[in-house]
Amino acid sequence: MEEIVNKVANSVLTVFDLEDYYIPGRRVSVDIAQWLYEGQLLREKEFREHLKAHDWTQYQDAFVAVTCDADAIVPAWASILVAMHLAPFARKVTSGSLEDLETVLYAEKLKDIDYSAFTDKPVILKGCSRKPVPQAAYLLAAKELQAVAKSVMYGEACSAVPLFKRK
Questions:
Q1: Looking at the predicted structure, is the pLDDT value of residue 63 above 90?
Q2: 118-133: average pLDDT
Q3: What is the DSSP string of the chain?
Q4: What pLDDT score was predicted for residue 2?
């Protein structure tokens, strides 16, 4: 009987797993629509009163995305004002959806990585994740890996899709 050899474990492939760069912490979305008159109109005086009365401590150490889910025209200063109220409490405040927030967090983390460990190596950009990894993070990582790696693939070692191969 022939010995079963795990070719994946014995390969020279290097796995780049974006989950390894996930920043732990609570993610929260703050919707400006909750403070709009009839969910449609921003009345400055009322808006400022709502912000003053709001309990901002609930966002202590959280990553916060400021958004407006209502189909309303909201002046640019409104989200800035909300962000200023959040600043003393939140770890990070961004504008947009929770996915936008995740993209910003990954972008900041990925720019600080030393990619030299991947120089001239075949790299698999791991595709499956249990944590929320936005599509934009894969694009950012692929760009950085392309600059140094011998090849870049996406997926799992047993079924990787080739993306790039240095000539």
A1: yes
A2: 92
A3: -PPP--HHHHS--EEE-GGGG---S-EEEEEGGGGSBTTTB--HHHHHHHHHHS-GGGGTT-EEEEE--SS----HHHHHHHHHHHTTT-SEEEES-HHHHHHHHHHHHHHT--GGGGTTSEEEEE---SS---HHHHHHHHHHHHTT-SEEEEE-GGGPEEEEE--
A4: 76
